[in-house]
Design a protein that fits this description.
heterotetramer, A: mainly alpha, Serine Threonine Protein Phosphatase 5, Tetratricopeptide repeat, 8 helices, about 0% strand, C: alpha/beta, Rossmann fold, six-stranded mixed sheet, globular, binds adenosine-5'-diphosphate, binds magnesium ion
Chain lengths: ~210, ~210, ~325, ~325
Amino acid sequence: MADLQSFQGWMADYAEVVKEQADYLTDLDRAIGDADHGINMARGTVKVAALAEAEDFASSEAYLKKVGMTLVSTVGGASGPLYGTFFLRLAGPLAGVADAGVEEVGAALRAGVDGILARGKAELEDKTMYDAWAPALDAYATATADGADLRGALEAAAAASARGRDDTLDLVARKGRASYLGERSRGHIDPGATSTTLLLESAARTLA
Amino acid sequence: MADLQSFQGWMADYAEVVKEQADYLTDLDRAIGDADHGINMARGTVKVAALAEAEDFASSEAYLKKVGMTLVSTVGGASGPLYGTFFLRLAGPLAGVADAGVEEVGAALRAGVDGILARGKAELEDKTMYDAWAPALDAYATATADGADLRGALEAAAAASARGRDDTLDLVARKGRASYLGERSRGHIDPGATSTTLLLESAARTLA
Amino acid sequence: MKKLINDPADVVSEALLGMAAAHPDRLRVDHDHKIVYRAAGPREGKVGLVSGGGSGHEPMHGGFVGTGMLDAACAGEVFTSPVPDQMMAATKAVDGGAGVLHIVKNYTGDVMNFEMAAELAAADAGTEVKSVVTDDDVAVQDSLYTAGRRGVGVTVLLEKIVGAAAEEGRSLQECADLATQVNRAGRSMGMALTSCTVPSAGRPTFDLAEDEMEIGIGIHGEPGRERKPLAPAKDIAAMLVEPVLSDLGLSRGDGVIAFVNGMGGTPLIELYLMYHEVSQLLEGAGVSVARSLVGNYITSLEMAGCSVTLLRADDETVRLWDAPVNTPGLRWGA
Amino acid sequence: MKKLINDPADVVSEALLGMAAAHPDRLRVDHDHKIVYRAAGPREGKVGLVSGGGSGHEPMHGGFVGTGMLDAACAGEVFTSPVPDQMMAATKAVDGGAGVLHIVKNYTGDVMNFEMAAELAAADAGTEVKSVVTDDDVAVQDSLYTAGRRGVGVTVLLEKIVGAAAEEGRSLQECADLATQVNRAGRSMGMALTSCTVPSAGRPTFDLAEDEMEIGIGIHGEPGRERKPLAPAKDIAAMLVEPVLSDLGLSRGDGVIAFVNGMGGTPLIELYLMYHEVSQLLEGAGVSVARSLVGNYITSLEMAGCSVTLLRADDETVRLWDAPVNTPGLRWGA
Ligand SMILES: Nc1ncnc2c1ncn2[C@@H]1O[C@H](COP(=O)(O)OP(=O)(O)O)[C@@H](O)[C@H]1O
Ligand SMILES: Nc1ncnc2c1ncn2[C@@H]1O[C@H](COP(=O)(O)OP(=O)(O)O)[C@@H](O)[C@H]1O
Ligand SMILES: [Mg+2]
Ligand SMILES: [Mg+2]
Ligand SMILES: [Mg+2]
Ligand SMILES: [Mg+2]
């Protein structure tokens, strides 16, 4: 079961991970983008990690909304509105839910990813973070149907996301900055898909 | 004896030498100047070498005046007015002289170097081309007094000039661009002194 | 990384302090929100023009704030679009009652952030906001299924021309229509001789050998479409001008505003040399140059290289181009 | 060497073709003599202002030809002073009957070539010529027994200020006196992060390690007085401002025109950042900034770095500075 504290733990953990991986994310973005994805994400997650200390939150919903707004207000670039919208929408299905179980978290994740789609209009195999989200949602649903608990479902989602991330290697980008490279974008892993997998791996470690 | 034809041969030879040594002269200037001395000199000597073909000259004096004007008009930088003035003044003592002997050439060289001094106001050990000219004039005078012929006097002058050039190595520049470097100008040979020695070596080969 | 900076994290905020100090008569800077405003504030009844984007393209956009051009520019981090909070604050501050036009370069990040800002501004204060998205870079294939062409050089020309129209008192709809029309009438193509280094990244975005160049680069240090052997200026000019001419469908007798832009690290002597090559090519194609602009206007930090922008220009466009402008980056008639 | 050029030998003449093409309304170029003139020609009774020097410092000097500034600029090869023929031709062409002022930067080559030109012009046509030699670079010790300080940033400010005075109809003597006074009232200091490459030389004039900088450089890729470890902008600003302040003997309450100049390869974002540091230091010293100028005005090809120039400015100086100027490189009020 995921409560306000576990969501805060998630963000604290993710901020650590992003800090450690920032250079790597930036290097990925250097190859097919503009060399700032790690910097962008770190700028946002530092602020997000500070939220829990600065403010008391009444609910998971309120907290995750604030996480979303904070990312929107600090990250900039493509990833700011996308991750920002993800968290803003993630909050919706958790309204009134103090302890979210595997079903509620699943609904929240779907809402979040719908937000990313609405904002970025990516399709599968456009070589974006969506290529790491889509298989994760599927795996989460399958695991849930197979009776997995929250941790199990998140672990399945993270593993599927990692495969989706790796599969971006061979894709030609059709969205985002990497799309300007055409064929030359092939042979590189998408930075946003990588930060997405890190987010889900962090969730599997910290939620439930 | 030096006549119009030998002066023209001198300039043809010097143009060849400058062409070959242009990169070296520029490298010397890179160390303590602005990396253009060889380029400047080559721009001028190419034009000078072309004079003899383009025009008939009535006298050595007329020819050397034109050499001076051509250098003034094409070389630019510090070396343009200096070498230009040298040849303009060199011409003076040769007025009415069809075949110049060791005395007349000696007077002409002194007049030329006076022109360099008047224009550049350099003193001995300022680390300029004058440091290659001054010992050359002295050696020329001594050789003449010792009964040398034109070739012998020019060879003595060229050899002394080479020593003067080499002695610029340890000097701190007080004139020209190299003076901006202060102490850092020490340890480098002066480019203008080098092109001066080349000019005298060329004279020793071609005049008389 | 060799730069005249202190902490890489402070580059944008410290540069904004410098802008404010250098132009106190013309600019006012909101340092919290990183917004450059005209010192005089919004003019009642005039449409407000707001642009913005990542920093590192100076003088764009902050240097284009002033009479005859922008009312506000939001500065993002280097090469990172600004955030909606900035655009909302700017939008509110410049609204003189006639609505606000957002001028957005077509990059996923910029577009999404400006979109969020427009949504929030509409919900919030009721300011009427319209947006124009510039997408003039012919190096990028335009398609419904991609991010589309990038916004580059035309943005500068558009901010000037629409700025003049707004100054004349045109309505928001008229300004938006004119902006769309200008964007459609212009195309650009850029190239790089060297990469640039994002201060916080600390090393060059891409590596180019001593004998290579990138053709079809954007303005964020993104690699271009093609890497080619270094070529003489004449050939480079042809590689830039020809795709622009053919994409614009220019033909004999057409007039243009011709814009040779430096990427930041290329000296003016080379830009003028390139302009000579460009003007020769235009003459050959029978295209006449009504006005020209040569210099560093939309840059990519210290990247060496240039871009060529051609904007089809009728008399009205030229008249608006010639109208007085008084900004740190572009100034005439005032 | 990565440059937007064709044959290195043609860089200057091709750039002049580009200047002529880009500014047909304002400039006329004599391509044989490599002289940039005002399109309108000399004004009867106005003192003619002629400057010139090696190329590679663009926009100086050709970009400063126009109403309110120069009448003609002679372009030498890159970093090589022009030759007397050019200066003589320019002097004759701009003489409107009131004489001609030569504005010469203090470099041995420039001084000697301008001297020869003045001698020849006087002997030849009887045009009255006066010269001012700028020597504002505090990096160089001034002494009777050396080449003296170099002429750098003050040259730009002087061309503007004396240009305005000439436009007002002042006599040759008055213009020359004002020029001398402006030169005395200004000092500069420059630094480089990277070298530059003279096109015909093909490789950098000096080598600087990734963690080094040169303090006290000139504008010709000459190495500076000192090589130092790379430092933050704040420290670099202090290294430039302090010697200028003390050499000028500025004290609390004095007003200046403050000029932060880019060497060609440094982007505007860094120049504004530097200007912030400079203005802080001036504030600390109690010196007030009457006017400022930030940008690439007297450059050294693609060198990265900057220089700081301070000019003591009384009301009259500021009035002349504010007077209209319409050149490709500097423009306001027109
Ligand atoms: N339209 C889109 N939909 C989903 N994800 C996108 C889209 N465009 C870009 N992205 C993601 O954003 C990532 C880049 O983020 P970032 O580097 O922070 O922003 P920017 O590209 O503005 O510099 C890409 O790797 C990609 O995963
Ligand atoms: N005042 C002077 N008197 C004599 N020779 C000088 C003087 N100033 C400079 N020189 C000579 O000129 C040379 C440099 O010439 P060059 O590189 O062609 O000109 P510039 O310094 O203008 O680039 C120096 O090496 C020096 O020998
Ligand atoms: Mg990026
Ligand atoms: Mg030299
Ligand atoms: Mg970015
Ligand atoms: Mg030189």
